[in-house]
Design brief:
By secondary structure, the protein is mostly helical. The chain has two domains: about 70 residues, Serine Threonine Protein Phosphatase 5, Tetratricopeptide repeat (Alpha Horseshoe), CATH 1.25.40; about 80 residues. Helices cover about 55% and strands about 0% of the residues. The chain has nine helices and no strands. Helix 6 crosses helix 7, helix 7 packs antiparallel against helix 8 and helix 8 crosses helix 9. It is globular. The protein starts with about 25 loop residues before the first helix and ends in a 24-residue tail after the last helix.
Length: about 200
Amino acid sequence: MRRLHTTFLALALLMPAGSALAAHSGPEIRQIFEQGVAAYDAGDYEKAFKLWWDLQFEDLAAMRNVGMMLRKGQGTARDPQKAVEVYARAAQAGLPTAQADLADMFLKGEAGPPDPKAALPLLAAAAASNHPVAQFELGQMYETGQDGLVPQNLETARTLYAAAASHGMPEAIAKMRQLGIAPPPAALPTPTTTAAAPPPSP
């Protein structure tokens, strides 16, 4: 469920103090970002990482992709601490995928001891933006009342699982069935049909 960002999200981000990086125009940002996507899809992770690294302070999606590659060690040495730093900038700027990814790192203890307390506000923000992984992980917290951070509330957990399942998330669908709840219709596979396909458009 944690996929590459393939759509650029150009914003007027603040450059680091003293940065000599030149700002790019919107079309330039789009072009560089898409070059990174093409390189990543081709397996040239080093090129993709360099393109997005140079673009990270001008585009939130590039910043999040840099965090993801640092987390996985793609095109660069794996560096969980640096991944947290990069993800945190994108999360603070309001990017739901970065919020969810950073929360997942905290929950799994990838850059230190597991820290569900740090993960909670990130999950809440990303879940409110309809991010399925965040909805599922926040649902798990409410199902168990994890560490007293949230009250145990099965109704809230079910609502969050249903929201995640509506995106087709297998774990959420399985959890709903485990709890004896029918997954929402949007989560179920579309029935196949034997009707002939329409002819291609001219």
